[in-house]
Specification:
8 strands
Amino acid sequence: MTELDASTGAKLNVFKKAQFGFDGPARLSDDWTHVWVANDAGNSVTELNATTGALVRVIKGSTYKLRGTGQITSNGIDVWISNLRGRPWLR
């Protein structure tokens, strides 16, 4: 994933899989505090600090029942993530 300066288009940062837990990053959402990256192949979500770009955490595992993350959105309080594959609530 690449971060660009919105006013100049200059490259600011490149975020790599090993450092940020990306596995098929497909969709983004931000709420001015965090950037949320839905990782389709990894069945996970990466949370970044929107100001610094620092990794906050990678959300994954059976507790979250993510199966092929779809759309993602946040309002600064909650984050909603759709599943593209299967009905995880039945598994």
